[in-house]
Inverse folding.
C-alpha cells in the first residue's frame, strides 16, 4: 500500500500523527521518507500523539534512531516541545551522544528563539560575584524609581509591548501548545499592571501577576535567562530586541528598588523541588559557584518543595528503554539566603498562598556546599538527589550597605567631602557612642531593680508568711466585702461534674495573685454537698443556656468542705491588672 493511500483527504490529522509516530518508533526510515513529502500540513510533524503525549522527534530520540532524528529535523521538527507525561524535550529524553550532538548543532544554527530548548538557566564559574556586581551597577540608575509618572510610563510600555505584542506573538509561535485561555490570562495580567499604576503598588500586583498562571512566569523567566545578562555584557555584540530587554530590565528593577521590598525581604533556609535530568545534574559540581539568570520559586516549607520534586515517584519517572537507567530524578535544593536583597517572602501577596513561596531574585550567586545522591544507596529513595547551596556574600555590597547605614544615622545629609569634616564626624560618632552606651546600661539596671522590688520580693514575702498574711487579710474589709474566717478550698470542676465550656478566651494577663471571697446571699447559707453541687450546676446551666455565656460566670466558685455543711462563695480576682469584683472583664482569669 503506497503512502499516498495512507493520507487520503478524508483521513483526519489524528490518524496521520499516529501512523507517523509508530513509523518513527519502529525506525521505518524508507516509509517515513515516502510519507513526509505527501503530508499537506507539515506542522503535523510537531503534533503530540494523543496516547503517549510525545512527538515523533521525542520517540526517535528516546529509542536512539539517529538517522530518523536527522530526517525529522530536516523537515522542521521542533526540539523545544516538551512531552506531556514527563515534561522533557527530545534532547532530555535521548541517551545517545550522537543524537545529542546532532540536536546541539541544530540549536546553535537555529535563529528562531521560540525553539531554543537548551536555555542556560544558570551560569557556572568562578567570578560570578563580579558579573552580579556589574549587573547591579548597570541598573543602579533605576534607584530613582520614586517618580510615579516615570513608573507609569515604564509599566505602560510593559503592557503595550511585552503583553500585547510579544506575549501574543509568543503564543502564536507555540501553537503546538495553543491554549484558548492564554488571551484571558494576558488580560488579567494587564489588569494587575494597571492596578499597580493606579494604586502606586508595583510590588504587590507584579507578584499577583507572576503567581497567577504558568504561562506568564515561564515566558518571563525564559526571556530573563536568554537575554538580560548578555545585554549588559560589553564583551558581546547584542542583537536582540531592545524593547524586549528594556521591558525585562524594568520588570526586575522596579521590584528590587520598590520602597516596600525590605518589608518582605527574607533571610534563612528555603527549598526548591524539581525534576532534573542527567544533563542538569552534570551542571552541579561540589564547591562550584552558580548564578541564576531568572527568578527562582522556592518554599519555606520543605514538604511543599518535596511535593514539587515528585517525592516517592522515582519509579514513575523516565528511564532509558533498554538498560533502564534513569533519565530524570527527583531533586530537592536547599538554599541558605544570607543577604537582604536576595529574596522576598510572597506568601501573603501570592495568588497561591498555600505554596508559602520565597521568591529568589535573578542574578544571585550561590556556592554548592553538598550533593547527596540518595539513589546510589537506595534506588527507591523518596528524594533521589539533595543539593545544598549557600549564598555568596558580596563584600563590596556589604561595605556599601554599612556605609549607607552610618550616613543615614548621622546628622549629615550631604556627602562628607573633605578630611576635616570626616574626622569631625568620626569624633562626634565616638562621643555619641560613649554617652549612649552608659545611659542604656543604667536604664536597664533601673528596670531590673524595679521589676525585682515590684514582683519578686513581694511574692517571696507572701510565700514566707503563708497563713499569717491570710489572717491579716481576713481582718480587713476590702471593698466592702468581709472575708470569711474559714479558708474554703477551690472546688475542682470534675468534683461537681461541670459541663464542658464552649470557649476560653486567651488571656492577655497572668492569673491573679489574690482573690476576694464573697458569700452568695441569694443562696441557702447551709446546704449538704449534693445540694451545693446541684446549685452550682444549675447556675452554670442558667448562665450558659439562658444568658448564652461560654461557661459559668464567676472567676471562682468555692465550697467549704466542712463535712456535710456546704456554703457557696463567689471568688473574684483582686489587686491585679484585669481583676474585678463587679461586672464583666474579659481580661481577668475566669
Amino acid at each position: 500500500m503506497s503512502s499516498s493511500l495512507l493520507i487520503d483527504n478524508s483521513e483526519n490529522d489524528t490518524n496521520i500523527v499516529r501512523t507517523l509516530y509508530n513509523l518513527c518508533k519502529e525506525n521505518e526510515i524508507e516509509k517515513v521518507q515516502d510519507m513526509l513529502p505527501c503530508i499537506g500540513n507539515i506542522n503535523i510533524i510537531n503534533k503530540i500523539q494523543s496516547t503517549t503525549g510525545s512527538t515523533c522527534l521525542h520517540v526517535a530520540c528516546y529509542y536512539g534512531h539517529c538517522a530518523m532524528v536527522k530526517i525529522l529535523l530536516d523537515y522542521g521538527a521542533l526540539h523545544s516541545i516538551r512531552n506531556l507525561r514527563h515534561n522533557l524535550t527530545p534532547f532530555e529524553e535521548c541517551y545517545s551522544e550522537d543524537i545529542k550532538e546532532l540536536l546541539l548543532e541544530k540549536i546553535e544554527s537555529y535563529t528562531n528563539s521560540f525553539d531554543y530548548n537548551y536555555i542556560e538557566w544558570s551560569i557556572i564559574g568562578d567570578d560570578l560575584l563580579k558579573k552580579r556586581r556589574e549587573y547591579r551597577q548597570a541598573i543602579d540608575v533605576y534607584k530613582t524609581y520614586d517618580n510615579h509618572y516615570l513608573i507609569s510610563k515604564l509599566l505602560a510600555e510593559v503592557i503595550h509591548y511585552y503583553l500585547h505584542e510579544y506575549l501574543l506573538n509568543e503564543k502564536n509561535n507555540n501553537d503546538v501548545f495553543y491554549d484558548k485561555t492564554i488571551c484571558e490570562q494576558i488580560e488579567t495580567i494587564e489588569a494587575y499592571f494597571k492596578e499597580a499604576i493606579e494604586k502606586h503598588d508595583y510590588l504587590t500586583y507584579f507578584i499577583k501577576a507572576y503567581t497567577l498562571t504558568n504561562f506568564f512566569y515561564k515566558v518571563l523567566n525564559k526571556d530573563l535567562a536568554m537575554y538580560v545578562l548578555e545585554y549588559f555584557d560589553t564583551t558581546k555584540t547584542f542583537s536582540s530586541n531592545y524593547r524586549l530587554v528594556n521591558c525585562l530590565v524594568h520588570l526586575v528593577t522596579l521590584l528590587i528598588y520598590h520602597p516596600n521590598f525590605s518589608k518582605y525581604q527574607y533571610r534563612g533556609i528555603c527549598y526548591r523541588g524539581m525534576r532534573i535530568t542527567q544533563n542538569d545534574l552534570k551542571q552541579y559540581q561540589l564547591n562550584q559557584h552558580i548564578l541564576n539568570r531568572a527568578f527562582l520559586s522556592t518554599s519555606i516549607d520543605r514538604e511543599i518543595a518535596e511535593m514539587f520534586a515528585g517525592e516517592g515517584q522515582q519509579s514513575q519517572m523516565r528511564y532509558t528503554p533498554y538498560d533502564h537507567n534513569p533519565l530524570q530524578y527527583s531533586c530537592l535544593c536547599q538554599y541558605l539566603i544570607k543577604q537582604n536583597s536576595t529574596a522576598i517572602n510572597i506568601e501573603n501577596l501570592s495568588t497561591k498562598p498555600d505554596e508559602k513561596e520565597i521568591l529568589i531574585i535573578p542574578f544571585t550567586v550561590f556556592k554548592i556546599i553538598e550533593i547527596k545522591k540518595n539513589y546510589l544507596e537506595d534506588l527507591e529513595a523518596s528524594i533521589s538527589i539533595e543539593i545544598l547551596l549557600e549564598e555568596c556574600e558580596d563584600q563590596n555590597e556589604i561595605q556599601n550597605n554599612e556605609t549607607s547605614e552610618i550616613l543615614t544615622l548621622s546628622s549629615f545629609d550631604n556627602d562628607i567631602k573633605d578630611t576635616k569634616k570626616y574626622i569631625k564626624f568620626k569624633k562626634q560618632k565616638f562621643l555619641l557612642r560613649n554617652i549612649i552606651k552608659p545611659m542604656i546600661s543604667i536604664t536597664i539596671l533601673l528596670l531590673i531593680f524595679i521589676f525585682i522590688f515590684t514582683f519578686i520580693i513581694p511574692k517571696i514575702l507572701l510565700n514566707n508568711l503563708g497563713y499569717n498574711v491570710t489572717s491579716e487579710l481576713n481582718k480587713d474589709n476590702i471593698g466592702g466585702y468581709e472575708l470569711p474566717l474559714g479558708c474554703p478550698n477551690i472546688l475542682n470542676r470534675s468534683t461537681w461534674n461541670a459541663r464542658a465550656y464552649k470557649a476560653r478566651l486567651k488571656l492577655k494577663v497572668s492569673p491573679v495573685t489574690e482573690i476576694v471571697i464573697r458569700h452568695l446571699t441569694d443562696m441557702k447559707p447551709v446546704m449538704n454537698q449534693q445540694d451545693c453541687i446541684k446549685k452550682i450546676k444549675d447556675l452554670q446551666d442558667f448562665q450558659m443556656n439562658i444568658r448564652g455565656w461560654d461557661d459559668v460566670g464567676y472567676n471562682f466558685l468555692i465550697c467549704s468542705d466542712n463535712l456535710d455543711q456546704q456554703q457557696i462563695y463567689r471568688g473574684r480576682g483582686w489587686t491585679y491588672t484585669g481583676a474585678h469584683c463587679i461586672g464583666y472583664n474579659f481580661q481577668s482569669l475566669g
In short: Residues 3-115 form a domain with the Serine Threonine Protein Phosphatase 5, Tetratricopeptide repeat fold (CATH 1.25.40.20). The mean pLDDT is 75. The longest strand covers residues 268-277.
